[in-house]
UniProtKB/TrEMBL annotation, chain B:
Main location: membrane
Classification via InterPro entries: Cell_cycle_FtsW-rel_CS (IPR018365), FtsW/RodA (IPR001182)
NCBIfam families per record: RodA_shape
Source taxonomy: Bacteria, Pseudomonadati, Bacteroidota, Chitinophagia, Chitinophagales
Record-linked PROSITE patterns: FTSW_RODA_SPOVE
GO terms, biological process: cell division; regulation of cell shape
The protein's name: Cell wall polymerase
GO CC annotation: cell division site; plasma membrane
Organism: Flavihumibacter petaseus NBRC 106054
PANTHER family associated with the record: CELL CYCLE PROTEIN (PTHR30474), PEPTIDOGLYCAN GLYCOSYLTRANSFERASE MRDB (PTHR30474:SF1)
Membrane topology of the entry: Multi-pass membrane protein
Amino acid sequence: MAGIFLVIIAQLINLQLVSGKYKELAMNNAVYPKVKYPDRGIIYDRKGKAILNNTIMYDLEVTPNQIKGVDTAYLCQLLEIDTTEFKKRIVTSILKNGRYRPSIFEDLLPPLVHARLEENIYKFPGFSLVERPVRTYPFQAAAHIMGYIGEADSNIIKRSNNFYRLGDFVGRSGLEQNYERILMGKRGVEYMIKDNKNRLVGKYENGIYDTAAIAGRNLRTYIDVEVQQLAEKLMSNKVGAVVAIEPKTGGIIAMTSGPHFDPNLLTGPDKQKNFNKLFLDVSSPLLNRAIKGQYPPGSTYKPLGALVALDEGVITSASGIGCNGAYYGCRRPVKCTEHWSGHAANLRLAIAWSCNSFFSNAFRLTIDNNKYGNAREGLTRWHDYLSRFDLGHRTGIDLPSEDGGNVPDTAAYDKEYRGSWNSCTMVTIGIGQDKLLATPLQMANAVCIVANKGYFYTPHFVEKIDGETGKDTLLNKYRRKNEVLTHISDADYETVISGMQDVVDVGTARVARIPGINVCAKTGTAENYRMIDGRRTKLKDNSMFVCFAPRENPKIAIAVVVENAGFGATWAGPIAALLMEKYLNDTLRTERLKEVERVSGANLMPGWLVREQYKADSIRAWNWFKSTNDSSAIKKLMERPVPRYVPEPEKKAKPKPAKPVPAVVKLNTDAIIPERPTIKNSRT
Amino acid sequence: MTQKKPEISKGIDWLVVWLYIILVSIGILSIFAATYREGDPILQSFLSFKTDYSRQLLFFGIGGVLAVFILLTDSKFFTATANLWYAFGMILLLLVFPFHTQVKGTQSIIRFGAFQLQPAELCKVFVNLALAKYLSRVETDFSKTRSQLIAAAIALAPAVISIMQHETGLALVYFSFFLVMFREGLPAGVLIIGFSLAVLVVATLLMEPNTLAIILTAVAALAIYLLRRQIKRRRRLLFLIMGIWFVCVGIQRFAVPYIFDNVLQPYQVKRIYDTIGKDYIPKDAREALEIEQTSGTKKKDDGDYNVKQSKIAIGSGGLSGKGLLKGTQTRYEFVPEQRTDFIFCTIGEGFGFIGSTVLMGIYFLLLMRIITIAERQRSVFSRCYAYGVASVMFFHIAINICMTVGLAPVIGIPLPFISYGGTALLTFTVLLFIMIRLDADRQMVLR
């Protein structure tokens, strides 16, 4: 007898004193740590308007064991579903959370449905409306800058060392991602007691272990939301990008990428559907071309080339060249748009009239500089200058996944020409072509350097964080002045800047004149090639424009790229002019409103997009057929006419006035691909 | 009977009485801890007789009255009417067949309105009386096999009926009377054989049949080798060893599989497997369904859910426990049947290792005291009866606590004096107080 008692006591020692796991198991059994999500931080523009805010939407929750005597038909009518769907959802929620715990029946109700339900919810026992904080963009603007939030996936959770949990929302792009730690705030935990049926029955220990949620901190940005909205309006139905920077601070006033989208599409109940739609669009509306689009800068490079050549001493402000329509210094002539003699009589004139001959020559002189003796050293020196202009590498803007552009160095040419190259091989770099690539952000930043006469601040959006402390080191690198090219003499800068002012006053960009303000600018018309149906096709030129104003005290520097739009002064110039006027004068003259309508109404979507969309759709339809044996998508596709891309004529005709075409890359993707079932996450 | 009538309190072993009162109080407290819901008015619900703890209090009262009646009765009454009571018990047991109500899978309960009676529980008292009576007869010579068989029959008859009523747990209790018989001269061999059989059965379940057969053969061969001298002298020994080997292999190979397949219910097989720590795979769909259904009636009895939760409850108590009404496991009904069979969890979780050990100590003290009482009896009847009480209680305590801490299969038998249940409490009260009455009259030689 005593033996058995001793055995029992031994087991009790084992269970109660030795083994620690049972306490934990009992805690897991009975205590449910309910996470309290803090409000995310708000993002304000430079005038204190909230660009990104929080709002409340409602989820409809159901507790299956309590739905007795519910008028199912009426509820279905309110929710616009049928009874089979109703039954299916009830069964799913029972399977997922059991009968006694609430599960989400429908999430993020549209306002109309919510209003209808709110009045009648008392008629549906077991159903309840639960608040849920949602991000909202009151100005429907700045989608690419702000980014969006999404549920943390397994990768994010792993990378964060399990800081995030399944079902957490985390910034997935834009400022939301870059400033995640600041915006997210601090989660709180409420310890709840649950019983054997997983029902929450009360607070554990009266809540002494609970921690409150701390709301995320707000961001104050340099963005001017009205300029941003105008930029987006002007870029509608265009492929390209606009970046406007305040040169004195590096603060970004506006940044848009065309085509753009309403950021609210990615917050509401249809966010998954909308995301799929945007994702499948071949014109890539989700791509931020301002930091990811890499374009040959074309003539907008010329002021930089002039500064390099001046500083290297290979030209002077008085240097001129006789140009009659082409540069014949190398085997293949470089064409120039101007023919009349005297348009490149000196540097100012050459910039004003964007003489290709002059700048091809200046570039060759830079590379073949007698100081260094060989082209190799000359190219290295030139590469060094361009790097100082912050080209060829990422600027370090406070947005994720920026691209760095390309400034070719000796290695690149050694690779391509097996070491045998000279200044003629790369002569078109002098007019911003060849291997030279820059993002619109880099172009705008380079203009800032010119406007500031040699220094810049790394471009960034966030001016300050509310409640900033010494621990927030995120913004430090944006507050450091980078004096990269201050050794170039003021006289050289003045010459180039005067040339840029002449561009507007007398030269190629007279469209950008603003009364009472000295605008400095440079147009660019860059050649545009693309592989279409396996052929390298020459497309209509990209329209580029860089500018800053006012000359005396630069307050805004802008770079505009409009793909496939022809001359720099035709589309990119007017866009930049309107933005400058809006920002500097805070308003637009009434007669300019017509211009806004003209520009924003123009549809410059490249013609090949239709063809590409068709190809992408048919590939998807085929894959869909292969994986599901469902040929309906292919059949639908076959009913559509097959679009062929016919290259536009080489002749650079004046753009016709915009047709009111809805040819905005027609998206038929959702019709072709049966929508995949979206998995709704349950959050309790 | 020319003696002067003694006063009731004379000769009563007050220690046992006090231990009884302490245990029942602990019981009521534990039931209170297990079933009290926040916000109930405590005093009111204690007096309303609607909650479990107040009903247990009521039964405590009834038990007290019964105890006084028993103490007032002449101890000769029990010896005289022992066989009569036994007959009455058997009739009650048989009456269950036509009049039973199905409660939680057993068919051993008769219901009178709100009151439930479980004759198999009650019969323990009667069997104990009858067994004591039989063993104390002058003409009984317990060294004879015939007497041993009759005694075994007296003890096991209710067990057989119980099994027929699907109440295996209570049936097992009747085996505890073998301890009494052992004290009265049942050869130790019977117990040793019984124990060896149990080891063999467990080994059968744990090991591969062939491995076990080889081990058994090896043991037999070793025995023959060690005893080869004696075998040379006595051929019979060889045959004996061969016979034992044959029986063992037979049991291992045929008897155990037969019993598990055909005699025991699938859920019982599963519980036995759960205890020894093996997964039981139902042989076919029908059986799996049966397990599911039986489990359904036994409330969430899937696998070793009960034992797991019970171990969590007891284990989470730690050294000093979470305190009265603080146990999350028991308060939020994670442990099924926690006011009846799994009441030990409430104590283990609420009062921890210290509380559990103190309770075990009280039980130990009580059992030791009963054995002391048994040994000081002059009459065989009283001694047998007291041993019976000790055996039954020991069996209940050992199996119940072992079950909650995961050392024994889940057998639904209550913890004496503590588990909720009127019949059980009254049965143990009567069982104990008859002993106290007999002990009070120990100076008299009874038959």
